[in-house]
Amino acid sequence: MLFVWPALWAVALFLLVSDPRSSAIRRLSAVAFLGGTGALAAVVDGTFIPGLASEAAIARWEPTLYRVQVIASLASYYGVPYAFLLFAVAFRPAGWPRKLRRWLPAALLLPIALCLLLLPPYTERYPIAFSVVVWWAAPYILFGALHILLHRPRHAPFSPAYWIVCLAVLPPVLFLLTMNYILPSLGWLRMWVYNTWIVGLAIAIFVLGLFTYGFMGTRLLIDRRRLDSTLRAVTSGTAILNHAIKNDAGKIRLFGEKMRRYAEETGQPELAADVETVLGATRHMQEMIARVHRRTDDLALQPAEADLGELVRRTLAAFEPMLAEERIRLLCDLAEGWRCQLDAAQTGEALSNLIANAIEAMRAADRGEGVLQVRLTEGRRELTIEIRDDGPGMDKAQAARALELFYTTKRGGANFGLGLPYAYHVMRKHGGSLQIRSRKGAGTSAFLTFPKRKVQAVKAEGRPMAETERSETRHG
């Protein structure tokens, strides 16, 4: 238990610091903290109190340590089931009414308050009345576990991170239910000593999750900070560069045009042609730096009400000639009637970048015919646009760098690697996210997720909630 106590408290602190605004993370942090508090009670009982060497130390410290043991033990026994159920509700809200979620924490405290008031006080052999507490602690934990398992995410990129959470949280909590509540209620006491191994395994899964698919969005949060800081640095640099080049290019253009007029007036066609070449290079240089600056500039959104499905449809319409030329089949499945407050121009440009990338990927595959799938689906808390191609896909290293500025797998042309970072920036400004899911040889999917609350999404009246449109267009 000497390992479990600091390890669980370290996990709790890490989660709390990673995203203190997330209700689910705060409550999972409470689960870890209260689990560690139970381990602290065991360490006080088995290590600290027996380690008091002298009579004076025993007389001075044993009463205080015993009080710490009592408080820590009761906090763990009563707090873990309570915090876990609240975590389950926050992790997968599943349409819980807001009023119910507001009153739920207070209502769930009632059995705990009654147990503290009416049941026998703490003793080392029976810290709680197991035969009574198990009747509410077991339902709390079992309901929370079933609630998490029955409300899985609908979209592929969120599934690995979801299962990492399930593997790191559910087994130790269910094991704790068995060892700390069910078996003691049947007379098998002090079974909590076996919790060490399952907690160690859960912490190993937690650490592994941080470096792979993420844990409760923590890896994504780290990636976001890195991408955001890089984007801010590049934005400042390109703004300075754009300003400097614009001024100098303006001077070159001014004197160049003066020189060209002089060459034309004096009948020097070769000099006029040379000057025109210089002016053309100046215009090209300005255009290149302006393109980089436009894609990295700090976006100022101009939100207005727009139908998200119609926006996707209009964006796709501009690509119909290209789809026909490349013999790409379009599968479109759009949830209808969702009106949102967003910047339609910026969102449409982000969509265009992703669609163009998908078409170029399928062109690179050179298989004769490709399939582009575009879906708009509605979840309980978000609207998600998925753009999926059946191109060559990317390996893990390429997919991990896909959102980095200036990173591109394309060769030749004026490909600066700014399309995906720009789309990421647009989604961040809308309070949403962009995630890329790809596998070598199996194509790539891009997911743009808009939280309904952030974009004030409202379902148009007169349309059933589940209504969607399914269309299939064959080009070529």
From TrEMBL:
Its EC number is 2.7.13.3. One of its GO terms (biological process) is phosphorelay signal transduction system. It comes from Cohnella nanjingensis. Keywords: ATP-binding, Kinase, Membrane, Nucleotide-binding, Phosphoprotein, Transferase, Transmembrane, Transmembrane helix, Two-component regulatory system. It catalyses: ATP + protein L-histidine = ADP + protein N-phospho-L-histidine. One of its GO terms (molecular function) is protein histidine kinase activity. InterPro entries: HATPase_C_sf, HATPase_dom, His_kinase_dom, Sig_transdc_His_kin-like_C. Residues 240-454 form the Histidine kinase domain. Pfam families: HATPase_c (PF02518). This is histidine kinase. The chain crosses the membrane at residues 70-91, 103-122, 128-150, 162-182, 194-216.
